[in-house]
Queue: 2 jobs
Job 1
Amino acid sequence: MNPTLADKIAHAPKAELHIHIEGSLEPELIFELARRNDVKLAYDSIDALRAAYAFTDLQSFLDIYYAGASVLLHEQDFYDMTLAYVERALADHVTHAEIFFDPQTHTERGVPIETVVAGIERALAEGERRGLTSKLILCFLRHLPEEDALATYESALPLFDKYPHRLIGVGLDSSERGHPPSKFERVFAKARERGLKLVAHAGEEGPPSYVYEALDLLKVDRVDHGVRSIEDAALVARLADSRIALTVCPLSNLKLCVFDDMTKHTLKDLLDQGVAVMINSDDPAYFGGYVNANYFAIVDALKLSEDEAYTLLRNSLEASFVTDEERAAMIARLNTYWKQ
Ligand code: ADE
Ligand code: ZN
């Protein structure tokens, strides 16, 4: 792609709204933590682990992703993982990040949810000192029963009280097919009553009906991925009218075979029809790049213009869960930068 545009995007202030902190765990850190915590891995070396990152669909990725997370045991482990992401994000000029974590992946191994959040929070507080503002979103694993999500939600209530500035929402992730949003209506209703922000992965591998369910039954504020919405014209019009954003993750979609080639990605069609899409990295340690690499890949493949790149960046700020005042300041900063 045009190197001037790449440079302009790279240095632009931006928000990242779809990043699973466990998906930022690089193979080097997985091995270091395995050694530190005496956890046995199924791979002999960093190279052997990386070689296993040849995914055919979402589930083939999730199996390896959950195995990678098994090295996280202590507060310091969650701190180290999160601080590594903070540094990568700052290097990509991310000024605001909204970060997912999967407590059930850890509590089922006996790691208390308080340990998980304390480690992540300590690194995010350090991130704030270095120039990255952030929010944290607790995700429920949809392959597990709703009763487990409800128990996780109840166990997290003291943490929502303790970290109100940080822990501001709930989300839904893991294996999409066969686990529609409707399965989690009750737990999302509770979170909504409490005034939390709501997001859900939908329309990544699953059909447009899952996006409708996320909107109508869970009443989400944003949809994660949502790229299959393009198959339903009425849904696209509704997303455009409501300005409910889709947090799109191009390299993830490519690696998980949602599209067999980046030139087939539907982001430009969504953008052309007025849907608030923006660019994110999802699980950057597994999919070959952090947020800037995702921008480069999609702008290059779809031959997006400078104006379209600006719209994506601006949408990331518009869709952030920040106050109107903070949003206005972030947009002003982008505008000043973009005009120079
Ligand atoms: N957990 C981590 N990454 C995910 C993705 N892309 N889809 C669903 N669940 C996930
Ligand atoms: Zn995701």
Job 2
Amino acid sequence: MQIAKHKVASIHYTLTDNNGKVLDSSSGREPLHYIQGIGNLIPGMEEGLEGKKQGDKVNLKVSPEKGYGVKDDKMVQRVPRSAFGGGEIKKGMQFQTDHGQVVTVTEVGLNEITVDANHPLAGVELNFTVEVISIREATEDELAHGHVHGPGGHHH
Ligand code: ZN
């Protein structure tokens, strides 16, 4: 069986940036279970894994456009410190806005705080090493819900 649309694939992966720094990895955890072709993974991963078989090991280089998007400068904003209500603000802190958007503090000024609403991996070229552990058909329930059920997936 090959990875194709509506197949459930289980993969082990390690994600590094271009400096070789590990950003994420399934090593030492359950493999990642996902449904191919419905947007569970970023487009670059789905494209790179299409047609792969159990046991295949793949190196994928994913551009920001096919990863977490390019950085949008309009999503970086300066906000008056007073908007944060007087608590201590540090670089790297994350807040949720009234609209449910997660922003990260990137600069702390005396009167103004700079926050960035881009995904932390926006604009980053991603390097994945992936090992295909198993492939199976998705069930009707899984396709209806858009996610994998059972071990390692959702339990309802
Ligand atoms: Zn479900």
